[in-house]
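RECORD TYPE: protein structure
NAME: Bicarbonate transporter-like transmembrane domain-containing protein
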Amino acid sequence: MIASIFSTASGIFTTYQTQKLAADASGNTSAARTITNYNENSRNNVEKEEEFTTSDGYLSHYTSVRYPGAGMIRDVKIRLPHYLSDWTQAVSYRILAATIRIYFLNAIPALAYTMDMYTRTHQNYGVNEALLSSALGGIVFGLFAVQPISIVGFTGLINLFNYTTYDIMIERHVNYLPFMCWIAIWSAIFHWLIAIFNIVSYVRYVTNFTAEIFGFYVGIVYIQKGIEFIINEFNETPRDGFMSTVIACGFFFTYWTLTHVGQSSYFTRPVRDFLADYAMIICVLFWSGFAYIPGNLRSTNIQKLPVTRAFFPTQQQRSWFVNPSDLDISNVFIALPFGLLVTALFYFDHNISSLTAQAKHYPLKKPAGFHWDFFVLGWTTLIARFLGLPYPNALVPQCAMHTDALGKWKKMTVDDEQHIPTAAPSIHSSRRSAETLILVEIKEQRLTNTLQGLLCIVTMAGPFLICFAHISRAVLAGVFIGIGWGSVEGNSITTLVRHLVRDPNHMVPSDPLLQLSRLKIFHYVCWMLAGFAVIFGISQTTTAVGFP
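PREDICTED:
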């Protein structure tokens, strides 16, 4: 039976993608991101690979451990000719809008997780550490990565790892920051060995089955963290808890509405683009100010984001440099398995996130590479820990959101239909004839990632920290729930569950999922939910340190 279930996996995901294309053709603009030059893009990628012959040592050798460094050399060789165009093609309004949008989508969740770590690690991490970690990832990957559109920052899984490690080691009276520094040293070494010996290439064996479970898990953890923030306010007073619930739910519904209007046929395209680009900042500003409305609202005492001195660590008694020698030699080697766990987490999390930014349904033209980027990630991990920062790595929701933000649309013509047979049209009806839009280009450049990293450093200044201090924990709860639901809503698990609970008599006959047995789909979803339940259960206990 198990073999039968897994044999349907390929068919389910193929029909799931076909269903999304069909949904676009019927006017579902929220799925319009699937509009692509898929066949043409695939042919281009094959042609680029064929440029490297066996005699060059790349086509046959960059996936083999017997040829150290071949993968990294190949990554740099195919991307270096595009380095200048990565900057010259980055001049447009779309770049500015994408920079602002991705800064808030990166920084605000990082600040939310910082509030969690601030209390759970005895103030070892704060706003400045979160911002500097996001800045480090953005600037380094913007300047030196083969895949500069992958957004690298501070993630919830590292938040989980950091405070779980703190709980374990504080009982042993171990100096926490030097211990975390040694974890980074070991992890960096493992990163470099994996990149040098081309082991990153084994990511190709990660299937949609695993990737979708992981994406679903990340979304649920975001929502869970938002609910925890609200419950903590009830622990203060019921009045504060009710106020936090109103703000968090109001934030979520406002954010959800603005983003969906931005993907709909309502209003004109410039208005829709504005709402989609600035939904996060609009919601943060409005609902942060909501708590300051004079009267009963302002009299509540909901918690705000704790901030410290500009450009200084949260713990005033320490400097930005963590001395790794402040640790016993025995604990140096105890840090080794922890470093291996971080490496395993990043091997999956970072590479899967990068794959979402480079997914085949985007009309990308420039080549991607993973070996070199994983090598660079080892350096950012090492540098972050010598500065006492959370380790940065690629962000699952934000990577795809960044690529979406860089998209360029145009009206479909007859010529487009002939040359882009797999393009799924997004039809917007009005009093005029129907307008069909297709995604024709992604602005593949380095400026947005670099600029959003620089913005993280700028916002470590005093005036911006004062503004951050007015963001309530309830707003951060809404941020978690909003981003988490965005990940869950678009996940294939959710799509398949919705299919199973719908009345077959009211389904469109052309629905591709109708070609599959409902029982097989049910079994397949059960296995996916079982996998999710296992990793979610692990993350709720002290064994969360072994999450990878």
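COMMENT: Residues 137 and 380 are 7 Å apart (CA to CA).
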